[in-house]
Write a structure and sequence with these properties.
110 residues; mainly alpha; ArsR-like_HTH (chains A, B); Transcriptional regulator, ArsR family (chains A, B); DNA-binding; two-stranded antiparallel ribbon; Arc Repressor Mutant, subunit A; 2 strands; homodimer; WH-like_DNA-bd_sf (chains A, B); transcription regulation (chains A, B); elongated
DNA sequence: TTTATTAAATGCAATATTACAATAAAGAAG
DNA sequence: CTTCTTTATTGTAATATTGCATTTAATAAA
């Protein structure tokens, strides 16, 4: 049905999956990398540097904002985006708690 | 169009996004957690423990296999799945290289 | 006020994803 | 061989995602 059955999973499983999903598109990875280098906070700059149309970039920015990973600030006619540091660190902690599952105690049965 | 323009992004950006995408569903997080606890390598056990139909679990297992994160081994009529340790560690390194982008040198302009 | 400039919102088309019923395939048990 | 068990495959429906042209909104500049 294209709809995820979130209710049968734990809060943690849903949060991890949602964060991973937000990172699950190369345009959004590219946007975040640019924001980390902080040489292009402005939406228009991102449109120029990444080869996608303005509405498409705007949409990806919206998703990153919904995920809490970035924040935007209106400056005249343009909008300045940047990493939401606090949420970013929280996301990192959440993902790492999962990624660091102890692989040494796990049996590779195949 | 529902189709990602992979060709305009770097190989690294696509690889990071693809790995994140594979982790972008709570059922797949749940499957991986079970495999880490290794108390249910068998596909049928996962179907019982997670509340999704057998074809749905099978489909998620296939995606995790395509992403290289797990491997499967036929044992009689049943199939035993487990974490692909080598690829898992590689994925972790890849994601961490991105997640660990130096946040301290980044300006929070908003 | 009029005219740019910039970004968000809307609307649409194409494709992808999620989920499951029904079926097929492959081996085990009788 | 027949039957049972287990998993993959196929087909289908519903929803989500990606991408862009067009329009709208809001501020700046003239």
């Amino acid at each position: 049905m294209g709809i995820t059955k979130s209710e049968i999973f734990t809060e943690e499983q849903n949060r991890i999956a949602n964060m991973a999903k937000a990172l699950g598109h190369p345009a959004r990875i590219s946007i975040l990398q640019h924001l980390f280098q902080s040489d292009s906070c402005i939406c228009g700059d991102l449109v120029d540097k990444i080869g996608l149309a303005q509405p498409t970039i705007s949409q990806h920015l919206k998703e990153l904002k919904n995920a809490g990973l970035i924040k935007g600030n209106v400056e005249g006619t343009s909008v300045c985006y940047c990493i939401h540091k606090e949420n970013w660190m929280e996301m990192k902690k959440l993902l790492n708690s999962f990624l660091d599952s102890d692989i040494s105690t796990t049996s590779e049965c195949c």
